[in-house]
Specification:
Layout: H1 3-16, E1 22-27, H2 40-48, E2 56-62, E3 65-70, E4 80-84, E5 96-97, E6 115-120, E7 125-130, E8 139-144, E9 150-156, E10 171-178, E11 183-189, E12 194-199, E13 204-209, E14 217-222, E15 230-235, E16 240-245, E17 259-263, E18 268-273, E19 278-283, E20 288-293, E21 302-306, E22 316-320, E23 325-334, E24 337-346, E25 394-396, E26 403-405, E27 411-412, E28 424-426, E29 437-439, E30 451-455
């Protein structure tokens, strides 16, 4: 078989094994696990609820629980909720406020006001960024999921770090960086045009200035390379992608030089990087997700998932679990309201924090979600590994790009070796970046994709 035919065969094999999502749940509209008892406030909460106003913004997964932050529009009773990743019941689960209804009571700045980005760490903690409200400043919540969901830390941002004036801050997302002796959080605040950093060990926060004006950061993702870790940044209302070395973010009151990487086809509002350094991104009002392996040049993005018209500003939110499964909520907006799907697929790479982690995720057996009430939510605390994915394959990541020299003496030039321009008269591009394909373990198929060119 010629090298050209082999390359075409491998391309076809990769496309044939394209990643497909499995639908876990579907909702015509979200409902809540309402508090029980004779308290008259319960009825008032339900009466004010407007399901058409609900849409998920960020999510995290740990064990058999999936956490969502909801937009804080009128009539939304709780902004931080959870649901099980599997259920014995065929009915879609209701949303349970996390960690309790009590922490979502209004008119109390010590409660959760508006949850935004969130992430779990290797010690079983859930980190939640809280935007605050017009009358309450922003803060970070750290919950211990393996210790009865206890509140381990609440960090209130000083006014010098995140403005206590609601009109001068706009918090979005958070990523966690595990260092040798600490956990650091990186946070985007669009109105300040700075990166906010928080240290768990010192319980202090500070900012790093990005010198060029107009850099209103909204989305961020952290690479898994511990030696030269990069923070990738997406601008608000822009297709541009940048990066900054995390080593420049650790000096309190300092500045950090950002590097332009390239432009997406859309405006990214949500990004994450897995343990194989593949960056996934969702875009405002776009009906697809894209991915890019940060180990190769940003020449073009590769679409990872695409559906019909969703007509939603934030159509997707997604997160990786500890087993290499990506979970995603897909939202479709119609004139009569919203509909939602929870989907998942195996991508073969974990969340960057869990690439070498051995954190215990044991969970007591529980009954179906329909039996979950306010009194029983405390029983779902210790986490376990979710059941095996419904997908039969596992993803393979290539950490470099190969070139095939299709001369009469065909041979591999070598991994990531620059293409000798003098030997090329007719470039033939099969793919410009690393391809992550689903393999069929039953047939032993491992699809690899190569970049080819013709020689004279």
């Amino acid at each position: 078989m010629s090298a050209f035919v082999a390359a075409i065969f491998l391309l076809g094999l990769c496309l044939a094994n394209a990643v497909n999502f499995t639908t876990v749940y579907e909702w015509d509209e979200f409902d809540f696990v309402w508090p029980s008892g004779a308290d008259s406030s319960t009825g008032k909460i339900k009466d004010k609820y407007r399901p058409e106003n609900v849409y998920p913004k960020y999510m995290a997964v740990f064990g058999q629980r999936l956490f969502l932050s909801l937009n804080m529009e009128s009539g939304i009773p709780a902004t931080l909720v959870w649901l099980p990743t599997s259920s014995k019941s065929t009915a879609p689960p209701k949303l349970a406020p996390f960690p309790s209804w009590h922490l979502h009571e209004k008119d109390n700045c010590e409660n959760i006001k508006e949850a935004k980005g969130m992430e779990t760490d290797t010690d079983g903690r859930l980190w939640v960024l809280d935007e605050g409200s017009r009358n309450c400043p922003g803060k970070i919540w750290i919950f211990n999921l393996v210790n009865n969901d206890t509140i381990e830390r609440v960090h209130h941002f000083p006014d010098s770090v995140v403005s206590h004036s609601y009109d001068k801050r706009w918090l979005h997302d958070i990523v966690i960086d595990k260092t040798q002796d600490d956990y650091l959080a990186y946070i985007t605040d669009s109105r300040s045009e700075r990166i906010v950093i928080y240290s768990r060990i010192t319980d202090k926060s500070w900012t790093a200035i990005t010198p060029v004006a107009g850099r209103k950061w909204i989305s961020l993702a952290l690479s898994s390379n511990k030696e030269a870790r990069q923070l990738y940044l997406g601008r608000y209302d822009s297709k541009e992608l940048y990066s900054v070395s995390v080593s420049e973010l650790k000096n309190e009151g300092g500045s950090a030089a950002v590097k332009f990487i390239g432009e997406w086809n859309g405006n990214p509002y949500r990004m994450l990087i897995d343990s194989s350094n593949v960056l996934f991104a969702a875009f405002l009002r776009e009906n697809y997700l894209s991915k890019w392996n940060i180990l190769v040049p940003f020449i073009r993005e590769q679409r990872f998932h695409e559906v019909g018209n969703l007509d939603a500003a934030w159509p997707f939110t997604f997160a990786l679990d500890t087993n290499g499964t990506i979970w995603m909520v897909e939202r479709k907006e119609t004139r009569s309201g919203n509909s939602y799907k929870l989907l998942n697929t195996a991508v073969g790479a974990k969340s960057k924090l869990f690439s070498t982690s051995t954190v215990s995720t044991t969970l007591d057996e529980t009954s179906g979600q329909q039996e979950i009430t306010e009194s029983s939510t405390s029983s779902l605390r210790k986490e376990s590994t979710p059941p095996p994915s419904l997908k039969t394959g596992e993803a393979q990541s290539l950490l470099g790009v190969f070139f095939i020299n299709l001369s009469p003496q065909s041979k591999f030039i070598g991994k990531t070796q620059p293409r000798p321009q003098s030997s090329i008269s007719l470039p033939f591009l099969i793919l410009l970046q690393t391809c992550r394909c689903v393999a069929d373990p039953e047939n032993g198929k491992n699809a690899s994709l190569f970049q080819a060119h013709f020689d004279g």
